[in-house]
Amino acid sequence: MGTITFRNPYVYDSLTSFQVDGYRTQTNYLTFFESRTGGSMTLGRWLSEYVTGSISLFAEEMNYRSPAKGVCDTPTPSEVCQQLGYQSSTGFRTHAFRDTRDYYLDPRSGWRVGGGFDIGTPYMGGTNNFIKYTADVIKVTPLPFDMRLSIRGRFGEVRPFDGQPVPLSERFYVGGINTVRGFVFGRAGPVVPTTKTLEGAAKQIIFNADLIFTISSEAKLNGVIFFDYGKGFRDTEALSLSLRPTAGVEGRWISPFGPLRAAYGINLDPREGERGGVFEFTIGSVF
Hints:
- The chain has a single domain (about 1-285), classed as Porin, CATH 2.40.160.
- About 0% of the residues lie in helices and about 55% in strands.
- The protein has one helix at about 80, and strands at about 1-10, 15-30, 35-45, 50-65, 85-100, 110-120, 130-145, 145-160, 205-215, 220-235, 245-255, 260-265, 275-285.
- It is globular, with a radius of gyration of 20 Å.
């Protein structure tokens, strides 16, 4: 299991990049088990000093199997049970961003604004038929005493066609250290009623507010006080701003081998079967 990547960041010494990826992964979502094999070719381009864009051609095959006990034992089968077995996706993914932040690993000021638009189509050989669009905005404001306030908002939606369900691989899993801290991965979105295990969302709205302060500038160590407000929505559920609130603290270290983050989030409005707080740790991801 793994990924093989070939990348040329400056094709013929231009501002255009070219990348080829091949991958084979296995993921245990606890509700189900996913095996995925695929590849992609991506062209990227610096459009100006701050603006980048990319377009990818992708093809992948997924196998969903081994549903958790009780997931399919309901009068109305969950989205997971309806999609067990093999399916494939082929199409295009596009992204564009304008990033004026002064340092992407630990910014003091600036904006990052952008989004993506994906198309999965059976006309290229896949079985899935959908569009997916996302938007992502970050504003970092400097404050006295080397503090800064980072405000982030995200939106996403997947729409299937021809009466097909939203593919499990394209759903949003809201909850966890990269979305809504204080929730176990995916639990701030739809869950299977009988088992409370994640089901995946067709839509998401997420807001994050981080007050970041320097603990040691020499060691590149920061502390964070955060408030998150977000939710994943079911396929037939209308979008609203009645979301799930959490708050907590986080430590961030820009280490020689990549960013390290440790966060403890408190669920401010826990429901039956949900944990009151969650501690998580990750290496290599930038929030």
